[in-house]
């Protein structure tokens, strides 16, 4: 088992380059299935969720060639299997994008119910609503979702909730459906726009991505394309918070400042200085951090995927901050771990009350999900003493060489492998006598 060991108290200084966006890449890679020709995808982050996508594509019969650390050539014309088995799907929530892509291309798909971060109930009713609206039928049995359609025809789809995954899946399924599909109450995240731009670069006809109404006119044929994934908004935000937590001064490169607006505004309220350039931002702190309230919301609101990271920063601010988590019902599971580091946080339902103590202390902690793990890294960087983080596989699902990037900024962080703990046997109380 791998873990991170962090010696806290070092300021982050220098420059860091952000990788491609995880939540765009895990949709764009399956989307290549829709093409009738090979595609080249660039700026792909080197993370385990992407490696699982590549494995699934190869398992289906696609030819995937690595053209360098972040570039893949994918030929989908050799695909001869239309199923994503449980062994892969359970490791990654985004496996459900293979449903939309396979249905959109072959009028059929068979994918295991998705896995992913344990954030509470993660239904897929809106995905199924989108698929059935354009003519698909589905069955759920033994944890597998089976989709079939005689023909896919454009239709109106109105989402009951704003959902990134279902918006992406609706686009994937409808892009070749005959006629016009209109998605209303669509999610507007940057990765939604990135997927639409990729599909349009293959010859699709999608308008309105990034607004709450997306119109898709089905096309017969999608040709190959070369496409670069956008920079990761959440990785950039995570580094912005890490610099603030260590009162550092860093130039964060390969970002789209517009995608970071809600994060930038919130950090400036907390007392962080931010200077924006065309494709980079400078982040530094030269004064106290102050309490601020945060409410998560769909884009362009404050991203839920930044909630645990900003909570960690607010532990270091002076005063009482309130965080309201409006997207996921169980996204405060990291709080217990931060409390082990001296955080004073009270959670009541979807609200967390943070009493800023101005400091944290190193401790052994465990990552319970991807962004919780990122928050613990930030806490360890800012804490006095040593922090050991277990279950870092969560972090490596979504961050491309986090420890290497942090070390290059001056952090004292290393990844060590330790033998998996044998199941601890309960003490034999007779022996105590
Ligand atoms: C995506 O998850 C992201 N994952 C999540 O990021 C992110 O937290 C989330 O969007 C919100 O931005 C990927 O893109 C792979 P949703 P997704 O569908 O698509 C409800 C990370 O850290 N809902 O937008 O699963 C749902 O319960 C991960 O990178 C339904 O009710 O999220 C939630 O309350 C964690 N029915 C809300 O919508 C559905 O059919 C938003 O979920 C689908 C969703």
TrEMBL record:
Q: What are the record keywords, sorted?
A: Cell cycle, Cell division, Cell shape, Cell wall biogenesis/degradation, Cytoplasm, Peptidoglycan synthesis, Pyruvate, Transferase
The record's function comment reads: Cell wall formation. Adds enolpyruvyl to UDP-N-acetylglucosamine.
In Swiss-Prot or TrEMBL terms, this protein is called UDP-N-acetylglucosamine 1-carboxyvinyltransferase
Q: What is its EC number?
A: 2.5.1.7
Q: Which organism is it from?
A: Ruminococcus flavefaciens 007c
Give GO BP annotations, semicolon-separated. cell division; cell wall organization; peptidoglycan biosynthetic process; regulation of cell shape; UDP-N-acetylgalactosamine biosynthetic process
Q: Which residues bind phosphoenolpyruvate?
A: 22-23
Taking every annotated instance into account, which residue ranges of this chain make up the domain Enolpyruvate transferase?
Answer: 7-406
Q: Which residues carry this modification: 2-(S-cysteinyl)pyruvic acid O-phosphothioketal?
A: 117
Question: CDD domains under this entry?
Answer: UdpNAET
Assigned protein family: Belongs to the EPSP synthase family. MurA subfamily.
Which amino acid positions bind UDP-N-acetyl-alpha-D-glucosamine, per UniProt? 93, 122-126, 305, 327
Quickly give the catalysed reaction: phosphoenolpyruvate + UDP-N-acetyl-alpha-D-glucosamine = UDP-N-acetyl-3-O-(1-carboxyvinyl)-alpha-D-glucosamine + phosphate
Q: What SUPFAM superfamilies does the entry give?
A: EPT/RTPC-like (SSF55205)
